[in-house]
């Protein structure tokens, strides 16, 4: 066996084994994502979490299709796509639709975090769960229609197998789809909005936002930012390879360079498939906001976790329950006997207090002063601007012109993605 043949066999085995590993680990990671995002109280009815849930479902379907495509030739000894016309069309349509849907969810999540963390009330008002559902449904429809030319022009040619028979459509996918639609455009879009969201979330402390809401925005922004980093790192090599392959044609008759090109393609394809198995972890990184009691607005000394899932100062929440009987954040009934000490928060809070300039060990065990932030039955307003149950104030609806502008831009993008393949086939 020549060196070129050995390289071709290596490329084939690498693709097969790496696909199996990605399928197993990616499916587990996506299921963990789905379980965390659907069961955690923090992420329920959140539009960014909705995008991540849809992405986990789409990525699981994509990994399953890729696994079936690679495993069937290994089982039967031949490629069913070169014999059965239905499988020839499906194995090319489904991965493309799922690939574009997954890319859209990443861009939508980055854009949503940019809206949620924006200092302008009108921009924050645009983000909603209804908008997330509409964008997701629209993306499903657009990318399904976009894949119809695959179903029409993919045919089985006895000498070449399952290939596209329309030359203009080949030019469209070669010069627009891979470099632009599935390359530079999602990379630049996700990077831009994730960086803007990261900039916005660093200034949340300057706004009068509840501690719980601020913590949720920071966690979601960190999750999306990490997802975008993996997305860009794994998609960029494949996009560069596609642009390179368009300008440098390798003939199959020249077996040596062709074998090396196939090995490079196997590595690049494995990297982009790895993009569908990345797990977005909700890391428990404790910031200063996590170590501050939402009632007293002071660093914890005796933290306890209540039945609503939040941590409070023992003395503060005990007196709150005696006065109100409900949670200061969720308004659900609470009982004093359900309070449980949180040693991890206690240790972190003690270390945080010791790092302050005004720390005095003699005052570390002194009980807290009487509460001043507990709402009374009267309409008295606290002079301190941050209150325990503070939420983002209601703002007027966004102006019609801004809504129309967003809808117009989205409509133009949709028309371009649908008309592009049609124009390519006609020309």
UniProtKB/TrEMBL annotation:
List the GO molecular function terms.
Answer: ubiquitin-protein transferase activity
Q: Where this protein primarily resides, as one coarse class? A: membrane
Membrane spanning stretches: 16-37, 49-76, 96-115, 135-156, 176-198, 224-244, 256-276, 408-426
Report one GO cellular component. Answer: membrane
Q: Which residues form the U-box domain?
A: 286-359
**Species, as recorded:** Rotaria socialis
Name the record gives this protein = U-box domain-containing protein
Classification via SUPFAM superfamilies: Family A G protein-coupled receptor-like, RING/U-box
Return the InterPro entries for the record.
Answer: GPCR_Rhodpsn_7TM, Ubox_domain, WD-SAM-U-box, Znf_RING/FYVE/PHD
**UniProt cross-references to Pfam families, sorted A to Z:** U-box (PF04564)
Report the subcellular localization. Answer: Membrane
Task: Give the superkingdom in one word.
Answer: Eukaryota
Keyword entries, A-Z: Membrane, Transmembrane, Transmembrane helix
G-protein coupled receptors family 1 profile domain: residues covered: 29-245
What biological-process GO terms show up in the record? protein ubiquitination
């Amino acid at each position: 066996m020549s060196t070129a043949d050995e390289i071709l066999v290596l490329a084939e085995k690498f693709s097969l084994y790496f696909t199996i590993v990605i399928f197993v680990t990616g499916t587990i990671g996506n299921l963990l994502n789905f379980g965390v995002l659907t069961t955690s109280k923090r992420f329920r009815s959140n539009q960014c979490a909705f995008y991540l849930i849809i992405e986990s479902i789409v990525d699981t379907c994509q990994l399953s299709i890729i696994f079936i495509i690679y495993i069937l030739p290994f089982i039967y000894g031949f490629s069913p796509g070169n014999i059965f016309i239905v499988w020839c069309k499906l194995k090319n349509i489904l991965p493309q639709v799922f690939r574009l849907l997954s890319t859209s969810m990443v861009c939508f999540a980055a854009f949503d975090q940019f809206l949620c963390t924006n200092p302008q009330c009108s921009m924050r008002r645009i983000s909603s769960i209804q908008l997330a559902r509409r964008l997701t449904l629209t993306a499903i429809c657009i990318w399904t229609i976009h894949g119809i030319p695959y179903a029409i022009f993919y045919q089985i040619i006895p000498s070449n197998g399952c290939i596209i028979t329309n030359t203009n459509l080949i030019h469209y996918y070669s010069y627009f789809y891979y470099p632009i639609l599935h390359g530079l455009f999602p990379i630049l879009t996700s990077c831009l909005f994730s960086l803007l969201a990261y900039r916005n979330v660093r200034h949340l402390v300057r706004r009068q936002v509840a501690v719980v809401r601020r913590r949720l925005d920071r966690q979601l922004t960190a999750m999306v930012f990490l997802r975008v980093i993996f997305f860009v790192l794994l998609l960029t090599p494949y996009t560069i390879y596609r642009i390179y392959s368009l300008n440098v044609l390798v003939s199959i008759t020249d077996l040596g360079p062709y074998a090396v090109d196939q090995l490079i393609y196997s590595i690049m394809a494995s990297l982009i498939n790895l993009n569908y198995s990345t797990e977005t972890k909700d890391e428990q990184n404790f910031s200063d906001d996590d170590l501050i009691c939402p009632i007293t607005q002071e660093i914890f000394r005796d933290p306890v976790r209540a039945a609503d899932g939040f941590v409070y100062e023992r003395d503060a929440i005990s007196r709150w329950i005696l006065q109100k009987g409900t949670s200061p954040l969720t308004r659900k009934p609470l009982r004093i006997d359900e309070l449980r000490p949180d040693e991890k928060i206690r240790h972190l809070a003690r270390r945080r207090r010791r790092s302050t300039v005004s720390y005095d060990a003699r005052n570390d065990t002194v009980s807290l002063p009487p509460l001043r932030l507990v709402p009374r039955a009267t309409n008295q307003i606290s002079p301190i601007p941050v209150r325990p149950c503070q939420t983002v104030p209601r703002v007027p609806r966004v102006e019609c012109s801004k809504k129309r502008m967003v809808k117009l831009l989205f409509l133009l993008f949709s028309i371009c993605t649908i008309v592009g393949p049609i124009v390519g086939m006609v020309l």
